[in-house]
Amino acid sequence: MTFLYKSDPVRGAVWAERFAQQLPELPFRIWPDVPDPRAVRYLAAWEPPADLATRFPNLEVLFSTGAGIDQFDFSVIPETLPVVRMVESGIVNGMVEYATLAVLSLHRDWSTYRQQQQEGRWEAHRVHPAGSRRVGVLGLGVLGRAVLERLGSFGFPCAGWSRSQQQIAGVECHAGAEGLTAFLARTDILICLLPLTDSTRGILCKPLFDQLPSGAALINVGRGAHLVQDDLLRALDEGQLSRAVLDVCEPEPLPPGHAFWTHPQVVLTPHIASMTQPETAVDAVIDNLRRHQQGLPMIGLVDRARGY
Ligand code: NAP
After folding, report:
1. Of 69, 29, 84, 75, whose CA–CA distance to 50 is shortest?
2. The D-isomer specific 2-hydroxyacid dehydrogenase NAD-binding domain covers which part of the protein (predicted)?
3. In terms of pTM, does the model score above 0.85?
C-alpha cells in the first residue's frame, strides 16, 4: 500500500515528514517517484494524471490538495472512485483572514484614504457603523459559515445564500433561485464563496449585479469563472458597483494589459486568499484515511452529481 502525493513538492516534503511521524506503516511517495504504481491506494493531487485509471488500477481514494475540485477532469476519473476535497483548519483560517481584511477595507474606505495620501490630501469622510453595512455570502459551506461567524462579531448584519435551506444563528439564510433576489436586495458587500459548478459558472453577472443596492461592493474568493468580467467592468463604470476585490481570475495569471490590473476600483490578489497548510492538511487526510479504513464517511467527500 502506498500514499502518493502529486502537488507542490516543497509542501510535499512537509507532508512526507508528518506522514513518517504519524503513519509510518503507510509508505509515502512524492510524484514522480512511484516504483510500483499497482501499490498506490491513495493519491493526493491538485492535478491528477489523465491516465490515473489505468496507471493506478488499485486506487481507493483520490484526495484534492485544495478546497475545490473544479480543476479535476471527471471524465477520466472512474465513477466509483471516492473523491475527497480538502477540509482543514488552515484553509478556513486563511479565508476568514482574507474576507475580514477585504470587508473591513471596503467598509472603512481604505482605498480612498490610500489614494488621498498619494495626493497629499487630508480629508475625513463619515465613518459608518458596522451595523449599517449589510454583508452577504454566496455559499454557506465550510468557508462561508466561518467567514460569516467572524464578520458577525463586528456587528455587520449577515446573510447567506445556498442551494439547500440552512439555519445559522445570527445569519439570515436564503436558498435557491427563489431566495436569491431578497438576499441580493439587502446586501451591500457581496462575497462569493461558491464552488465552481455548471450551475454557478458566470453567476456574478449583470442580472445579479442589478439586484444589489446601487454602490454595492463585490469580493470574489470563489473561482475566476464565477465572474463575467465585462459585466463587472460595466457595473463599476456605471456606479452600480463601487468596488471589487478579486482574488481569483479567469485565466490565472491574469494576462498583461487586462483592465483589472490598473482599474482604480479593483483590488487584485493572485489567488492567495487561503492556502492548504501542510501541517493541518496532513492531520485532516490521516483522519480521513482512518475513517475510510473503518468504513466511516470521509470529511469532504464530493457528491459528483451535485458537482461539489
Ligand atoms: P462547501 O463546503 O462545499 O460549500 C459550498 C456551498 O455553496 C454550500 O453552502 C452549497 O449549498 C453552496 N452551493 C453550491 N452550489 C450552489 C448553487 N448552485 N446555488 C446556491 N448555493 C450553492 O465549499 P467550501 O469549502 O466552503 O469552499 C467554497 C469554495 O471556495 C471552493 O469550492 C473554492 O472554489 C473556493 N476557495 C477559494 C480559495 C481561494 O484561495 N480563493 C480557497 C479555498 C476555497 P448547500 O449548503 O445547499 O450544499
Report:
1. 75
2. 102-273
3. yes
